[in-house]
Amino acid sequence: MSIRIISPGLSTTVQDLGRPGYYHIGIPLSGAMDRLAARAANLLVGNPEEAALLEVVFMGPEIEFLQDATVAVTGAELPPKVNGEEKATWTSLAVKKGDVLSFAFLKKGARAYIAISGGIDVPVVLGSRSTYTLGALGGFEGRKLASGDVLPVGAGRGAAEGRTVAGELRRSPGAPAELRMLPGLYWHRITEAAGRQFLEDTWKVAPEADRIGYRFKGGKPLEFVPREPPFGAGSDPSNIVDACYPYGSIQVPSGTEPIVLHRDAVSGGGYFMVGAVISADMDLIGQLQPHTPARFVEVTMEQALLARNDRARLIDRIRQALA
User: Fold this and answer.
1) Is residue 318 assigned to a domain?
2) N or C: which end of the chain has fewer CB within 10 A?
3) pTM
């Protein structure tokens, strides 16, 4: 079974839940930016949650099905169309051989996920089918999809048409988006007043927002505590001796525009980090469009762990609803 890409949209890649275990040698996790939406899409079509699917950014592709299949589109509100007829998102759809899946204009969010029964059957590289485009690794030939590509799809029984994930089980950012964060090892590098201001400011997503990291602008520059630069660090007060970068870490080059590192992030460097966005809110970042307002909200480790448990329970509720 396979599908043919008639038009790839703006940026469409093969992703799954990522390749953990290699970040220490510079190979990032990759995988779906919105993991909850990806899991839900796979569950809707009867796939394992970790099956490979397509991640779409802003503009949907046009796809011809070369065999019958079950399809679901989740994440961003990017209405799918089968042979020109608009269908519901977060709902399983039956398609026949020769049918064409296309998309209307984006209404909300940034990234949609297209799951196909059987999963996208590209080769497994280091334990994952995810595309890491910067390293030309995994996915379909290590790159974004292009017109004329034919992707293999695994054998799958599919699922009944019309299964849906209820609205209360879907997550989307608020307005402004609230990104919960833990202050980091370098929080002491800024003044107490600057720390308060950082949390009080409303930032906006900059156009430089991708799978590597999301840049935010519009807040006040940070004020640093005076110091004698340590050996190996640069003269800019935001420089540090090179250190590891965790996923979700918030670096602020020159103290002006925060960057939240995401699924394809580099694993280390020489910018200080004010903290890290908690794991439960990383999915939300992947759904932020440029110019979207956002705030960073300080939480404790206990609150971060409770949020992670809440997200796990939400995924369990989706599993139970579609069982």
Assistant:
1) no
2) C
3) 0.96
Instruction: Tell me the percentage of the chain whose pLDDT exceeds 90.
Output: 93
Q: How many domains does the chain have?
A: 2
Question: What is the arithmetic mean of pLDDT over 282-306?
Answer: 97
Burial class (CB in 10 A: 0-12, 13-18, 19+), 166: exposed
Mean pLDDT of 287-291: 97
DSSP string, 87-125: --SSB-EEE-TT-EEEE----EEEEEEEEETT-B-PPPB
Q: How is residue 135 annotated by DSSP?
A: G
Identify the H or E element spanning 183. strand 177-183
Amino acid at residue number 224: F
Residue 323 lies in a domain: no
Tokens of 121: 């059957």
**pLDDT value of residue 43:** 98
- Judge whether residue 146 has pLDDT over 80: yes
